[in-house]
């Protein structure tokens, strides 16, 4: 997929960033609060912070998709965008990069802070493996939802996919927590990257790559916005 209209792509990305930056700031504040609770060292605060962390990380992504993709269709802003010197591929690249950028800011904040809290406080180091499995699953879910939103115009289908992904998160957390190497070390200071853990991480990354490549291929074949 090639595009030489980089200035216009940057402008479209900047526009989406400006539209969502206030909401993103609110989510970041909530995530910082959740991380503070997780690192407080108290059992009740850890549980409350962990739950809040998951809810906000999911909400941040899906709310971003609603703002920068779904709502624009409802508000019929596409004809306005078509008045600019921009192709359908330029528009897709801008939306994809804006969506990834907006989500990676809170995602990386959570991942890096979690690593610091687990390795630098009294929290068991073995918790890091489980946390990364869950975080990467959430990134994978976001990439799927973003790709579907970019490819499918039906708001109903987009809501269905997002609800399905949220529903699958809880069983995934239970399943990964029951993996032998995870369950045996989650309360210890042993960080064990077992074959099962590496297989799950690899599968998550593979799904992310396949989804993004497939969606990009689909949009690269389009010759118009419609």
What layout of secondary structure does this protein have?
Layout: H1 6-38, H2 43-74, H3 78-82, H4 88-120, H5 127-151, H6 155-178, H7 180-185, H8 195-220
Helix pairs in contact: 1-2, 1-4, 2-4, 2-5, 4-5, 5-6, 5-8
Global Rg: 19 Å
Runs in which pLDDT lies below 50 for 5 or more consecutive residues are none
The largest sheet is: none
Structural domain tally? 1
Number of helices: 8
Tell me the overall shape: globular
Mean pLDDT over the full residue set: 87
- Which percent band covers the strand fraction? under 5%
User: Can you count the beta strands?
Assistant: 0
The percent range for helix content is over 70%
Name the structural class.
mainly alpha
Short description:
The chain has helices at 6-38, 43-74, 78-82, 88-120, 127-151, 155-178, 180-185, 195-220. By secondary structure, it is an all-alpha fold. α1 packs antiparallel against α2 (43-74).
Q: Any overview of this molecule?
A:
Helices cover 81% and strands 0% of the residues. The protein has one domain (6-220). The chain is an all-alpha fold and 226 residues long. The model has no long low-confidence stretch (mean pLDDT 87).
Question: What descriptors fit this protein?
Answer:
single chain, 226 residues, 8 helices, mainly alpha
């Amino acid at each position: 997929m090639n595009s030489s209209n980089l200035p216009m792509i940057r402008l479209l990305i900047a526009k989406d960033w400006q539209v969502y930056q206030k909401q993103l700031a609110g989510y970041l504040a909530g995530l910082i609060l959740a991380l503070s609770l997780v690192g407080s060292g108290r059992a009740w605060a850890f549980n409350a912070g962990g739950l809040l962390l998951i809810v906000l990380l999911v909400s941040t992504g899906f709310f971003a998709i609603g703002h920068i993709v779904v709502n624009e269709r409802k508000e019929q802003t596409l004809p306005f965008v078509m008045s600019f010197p921009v192709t359908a591929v330029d528009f897709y690249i801008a939306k994809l990069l804006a969506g990834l950028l907006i989500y990676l800011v809170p995602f990386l904040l959570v991942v890096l802070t979690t690593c610091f809290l687990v390795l630098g406080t009294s929290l068991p180091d073995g918790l890091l493996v489980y946390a990364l499995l869950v975080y990467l699953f959430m990134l994978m879910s976001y990439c799927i939802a973003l790709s579907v939103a970019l490819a499918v115009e039906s708001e109903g289908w987009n809501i269905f996919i997002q609800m399905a992904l949220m529903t699958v998160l809880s069983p995934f957390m239970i399943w990964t927590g029951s993996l032998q190497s995870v369950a045996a070390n989650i309360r210890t200071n042993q960080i064990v990257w077992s074959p099962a853990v590496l297989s799950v991480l690899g599968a998550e990354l593979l799904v992310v790559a396949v989804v993004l490549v497939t969606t990009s291929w689909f949009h690269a074949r389009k010759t118009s916005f419609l």
